[in-house]
Amino acid sequence: MNKRVPHNLKLYHYKGEVFELTELCSRGARLRKSTIKSRLRLGWSVEKAVDTPRQEKGAINVVHGMRNTREYSIWSSMKKRILSPSNPNYQFYGGKGLGIEPEWVKSFQAFINHIGEIPEPKSDYSIDRIDNARGYFKGNVRWATLQEQARNKSNNLYATYQGEKRLLVELAKQAGISYQTLYSRLYIREWSINRALGTPVQEKERRYYFKGEWHNLVKISEMCGVAYSTLNNRVTQQGMTVDEAVRANPYPTIEVHGEWLTLNQICKKYQVSFVTLKKRLAKGMTPEQAVADQIERKLYQGRWLSRQELALETGLGIDTINRRWRKGMCIEDITKPVTRKMTQHLHNGIMCSLTQIAKLEGVPFGSLARHIRKGLSLKEALGLMKRPSN
Fold it and tell me: Which of 347, 367, 343, 366 is nearest to 357 (CA)?
């Protein structure tokens, strides 16, 4: 019996003969099936795909031998930032029109010949563009530390002082004042550069009148629950009074039992939901009333339980508990088990339900119930159902 050959089996012509892909693996360079298949997909001829030996491991590194180095990784990332729109940082580099030296795109060796290897310790250095307005081109790249790169950022602020363009950070450090103070003096208070650098920081602690006493901002921030940095920014930079700065808190604080807390802090401490707290305050309740436990409870087996707790304790549905509660029933009636009331009928001297009667008489329950609903008595309904059909 001949072996059945699949109708979709692909055959290949190799040196005047026809072979399956599996058979080609034992010909030529004796390659794996996946290797030959991959080469054929790339457009190689069958003879070339079968006869060309596999490249030995490490052959791609024979040119420079630096594939697994930090320099190679930085070179690869640099190209992706410029050339690959799918790269997360493309919008800041290639998306802004920055380019890369054409020779470096395909040749790592050309790149490393120009810039040289990273100085030691290599982990402290990365590639940096000397002119941030230009891309990665010859003469515009260097190995730089993080500190050097930070000073070379395109969004750094500069000021001209004594005829020299200087970084604001450097000027502040030289004058012995904080960067925030120098920035505030120049761009918020609009002082001249000479006045901003020449005026010493006030040594005397500034105090503000708050709640009938004089306090510094640190003490006031502790009293009202507003962060010091927020309070300081509003008072010293935005020009608010202390009272305005406290009231302007986007997370308002409320005094509850002598303690200033935000709404979220109140909810967490007093176990009140945020929505419930907001509704109670909107109704005009005091904070103390709003956080008080206002859930209705009833005494059940020696414990005061809410409706939800009663439902869990008794196994009754919450709707049943709510309905009975609203009717003003006592706790015994509220927790009484649900019983389904079934109409009883006298049958052979015994009170029975229609279900029991239908089983005893051997008649369908649905038909019996329908006759009863139509106004027939039990005796008439049974007589009608047992009447022999002509």
Answer: 347
Helix, strand or coil, per DSSP, at residue 293: coil
Same domain, 279 and 214: yes
Which of 353, 273, 255, 109 lies closest to 264, judged by CA?
273
Range of the domain at 376: 344-386
Check pLDDT > 80 for residue 55: no
Greater confidence (42 vs 241) lies with 241
In a domain, 94, yes or no: yes
Same domain flag for 124 and 77: yes
Q: Chain-centre distance of CA 219, in angstroms?
A: 36
Which tokens is 10 given? 């692909």
What pLDDT is recorded for position 276?
A: 84
> Is residue 174 a part of any domain in this protein?
yes
My answer on whether 136 and 90 are in the same domain is yes
| Residue 100 CB contacts under 8 Å (≥ 6 apart), including other chains | 78, 79, 82, 83, 135, 136, 137
Neighbours of 111 (CB within 10 A): 24
Per-residue model confidence as pLDDT tens digits over 249-293:
566 778 888 888 888 888 888 888 888 888 888 888 888 888 887
Mean pLDDT of 23-39: 84
pTM summary value? 0.30
Burial of 213 from C-beta contacts in 10 A (0-12 / 13-18 / 19+): exposed
Same domain, 225 and 281: yes
Angle at 25 between CA 21 and CA 27, to 5 degrees: 110
Alpha helices in 199-260 (DSSP H): 217-224, 228-232, 242-247
Which two tokens mark 11?
A: 């055959």
H/E run at residue 355: helix 354-361
Domain count, the chain: 6
What pLDDT digit, counting tens, does each position of 111-135 carry? 888 888 888 877 778 888 877 778 8
